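step=encode ok
step=design start
structure_in=
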């Protein structure tokens, strides 16, 4: 808490004065172009990674960057998506997973356990229920994934979870409508904490590719 208070003091004394005009423009309105759905993991800092300013990103964070399918639960994620698309009129929705994701790891077998065995999360009933939205990612696991290599399996399942949550995202009527009218674009990204690199899901080739390649191609199908 002391660190937070010290940071706040520096913000008020040194940072806010330099940004005062910008915050004045944002005081009673916002117009972000992107809804960014990512994990609550403290190592993932979207504004730092993308060097964005206040007002650029509409953020939605939760354990495992989960997007419940439409109708599953009237929770904060679904409400955030609805508001972002219908009211803020965002043009892009990004679902971003990351390396070493603890939420995805919790759906893997315990160390040394056979594939298919699940961890005992009875002491975390709400977490266990939430992780149920990650379980379907197993069906999107890349072909050829080494199931005998825990690290490779973990990474592959993180990738698969991004694909799964994109599928869930598209079940939301406002998203489906935006995609059909081409007023909205959906992206699936994977951020590597160790290298700072991002990979983007390419639906045409069914694999993740470096984001730099996507940016260079400026693919209309990806909304760039």
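sequence_out=
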């Amino acid at each position: 808490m002391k660190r937070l208070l010290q940071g706040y003091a520096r913000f008020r004394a040194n940072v806010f004065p330099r940004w005062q005009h910008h915050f004045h423009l944002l005081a009673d309105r916002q117009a972000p172009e992107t809804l960014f759905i990512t994990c609550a993991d403290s190592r993932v800092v979207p504004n730092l990674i993308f060097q964005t300013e206040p007002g650029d990103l509409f953020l939605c964070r939760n354990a495992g960057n989960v997007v419940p399918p439409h109708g599953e639960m009237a929770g904060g994620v679904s409400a955030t998506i609805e508001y972002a698309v219908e009211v803020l009129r965002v043009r892009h929705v990004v679902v971003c997973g990351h390396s070493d994701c603890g939420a995805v790891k919790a759906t893997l077998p315990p160390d040394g356990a056979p594939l298919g065995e699940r961890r005992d999360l009875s002491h975390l009933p709400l977490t266990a229920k939430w992780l149920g939205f990650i379980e379907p990612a197993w069906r999107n696991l890349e072909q050829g994934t080494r199931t005998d290599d825990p690290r490779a399996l973990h990474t592959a399942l993180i990738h698969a979870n991004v694909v799964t949550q994109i599928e869930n995202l598209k079940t939301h009527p406002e998203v489906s409508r935006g995609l059909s009218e081409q007023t909205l674009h959906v992206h699936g990204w994977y951020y590597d904490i160790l290298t700072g690199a991002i990979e983007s899901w390419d639906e045409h080739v069914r694999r993740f590719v470096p984001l730099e390649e996507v940016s260079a191609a400026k693919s209309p199908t990806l909304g760039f």
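step=design ok
step=annotate ok -> The chain is about 40% helix and 15% strand.
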